[in-house]
Amino acid sequence: MNRAIIPSDLRFARTKRSADQQYKLGIKFPICIVDPPPSQYNQDVVERTLASSVQRLLNKYPVLFVTGPRQSGKATLLKKLLPGYAYVNLEFPDVRDRVAEDIRSFLLDNRDTGVIIDEAQRLPDLFSYLQGFVDETGQMGRFVLSGSQNYLLMEGVSQSLSGRVGLLNLLPFTIEELADTAYRQNDPFDYINRGMYPAAYDRDIAPTDFYPGYVRTYIERDVRTLKNIGDLDRFHRFLQLCAGRVGQLLNFSSLANDLGIDHKTAKAWLSVLQAGYIVFLLGPHHRSFNKRVIKQSKLYFYDSGLAAFLTGIRRRQELDTFHLRGALFENFIISEYVKGMHHRGLEPDAWFFRDSTGNEVDLIIERADAVHAVEIKAGRTISGDSFRGLERYRNLSGLPPEKAYLVYSGDETMQRAAAVLLSWQDVLPVLGRDTDR
Question: pTM of the full predicted structure?
């Protein structure tokens, strides 16, 4: 088992504290350094795209902040990239209490060698101390924070660390990251059924074993932290209703009516799912070709496996005839692009287009140099009619056919007269071109 590396001038006193063994430093500042758990996945096999952004920003900011959903591999990645840094997990109450006793001394003792502080949102006072400390020292990249509750972390960052912190997001695997590994799948619906969390691959955990525990242990626990929700069963039903609406225009009134809650509660609950990196919203493309563009956002899950599980999928073959097959495939493709941009250290430049006359394109990517239009179809074979939505959009926008894409579940990528026919496997290699930094 790899352990956090502590400065060599400090004495160790090993103590048995729990099943997770810990080390106590006996000099200067007594703080528990927790043995990292076994790697969630084989880092020698699965290289995370975000690694290059971590290394790039480490020398540019005093504090680096990596956030993302629980079990996405944040601590594993950081400990691999920063083997000389101490590791402290503030999820443990005794560790958190010990740090809280003297935060300044804790920062001072880790100033020269660096420290990874996991679940940093559990100690809000830390951010205020960091502000003054990094201003005094001027050192870059010595304090690396990670956490899974974006709302609490960003609240601390915006109040105390503005301009002093590099922000990155680590989400579940992308197919790009698994492409050259033994975990690669040849069918997109195998990924949709299995999901993209590292544990599903390293530990070969079936979705029916992984997701029930993930929902109860992680999602609902975070809900209690962020919102005082008394009826968790109703909130679980809210999760299921959200999953059943992937790829649809978000209608808070409909969600609220189906649950017997008010509109404001539905909004608050969705904000919790956004803060925990469970769902994200895709906004309407702001470039208006007429005055009748839809203004509502569309709802998607970062992990299509979780969405599939919440809609009742328990076996891979059920997806073949499932009424939400197309919606889950759309969720999978759009989430792949969004995750891929985050893992490149970029904000996703993603929108959708829809007007009141029925013209719609699933994904609009707008960059400084060009606009790309992407339509998504779940079938493996494509007919000429499948391009009609893109052709209508091209007529409205003047977009050339090489900037329009039809993503499908087949294997070949080729230029067609109306658009590029794009295999699901090529989404990030093609649409993510010229974004690597």
Answer: 0.88
